From TrEMBL:
Residue ranges of every copy of the DUF1285 domain listed in the record: 38-87
Top-level lineage group: Bacteria
Name under which the protein is recorded: DUF1285 domain-containing protein
InterPro entries cross-referenced by the UniProt entry: DUF1285_beta_roll_sf, DUF1285_N
């Protein structure tokens, strides 16, 4: 049996995750927290701030690649540093999505990051929001336009 695109993508994703996990394990435990105070903040609308100054999108995108959620707290983690991030609601706001015929969803965030999720079951549908968990435990929510489009396409 020849694997389809979805199976190949999932296999590649698992391999990447495995490599990342091995790399972190090789380093030992996560580095210690550099500062108890949260120097970064992600607000409800998805805007990122560093010490109350807005960050340009290119820096938000860069920092999101090292953003992790551990025990419901957010951190920027590198091999040598760990910084706390204050997140008002969800860390990412999804501004667009595409549902592929074979099941996966391609998501785009307000800071221009792209994410792939396997299926519909990963969405958590609430009365006033649709949220989901992305890589590294990061929580995301659909913006208002995506929320109504999603409800219209998949719920109603």
């Amino acid at each position: 049996m020849t694997p389809n695109k979805t199976q190949l993508a999932e296999t590649a994703k698992r391999a990447e995750f495995s490599k990342a996990t091995e790399a972190v394990s090789a380093l030992g435990a996560f580095p210690s927290l550099c500062n108890e105070e949260a120097l970064f903040e992600i607000r409800t609308n998805g805007d990122w701030f560093y010490r109350d100054s807005p960050l340009p999108v290119k820096f938000c995108k860069l920092f999101s690649s090292i953003l992790n959620r551990i025990d419901n707290q957010y951190f920027l983690i590198t091999p040598v540093e760990k910084l706390r991030v204050a997140v008002v609601q969800q860390a990412l706001v999804i501004v667009d999505y595409t549902c592929h015929p074979d099941g996966p969803f391609a998501l785009k965030s307000s800071i221009d990051t792209e994410h792939l999720i396997a299926n519909f079951e990963q969405f958590i549908i609430g009365e006033e929001s649709v949220t989901l968990t992305l890589d590294r435990g990061i929580m995301a929510k659909l913006n208002r336009a995506c929320f109504y489009r999603f409800i219209n396409e998949f719920v109603v």
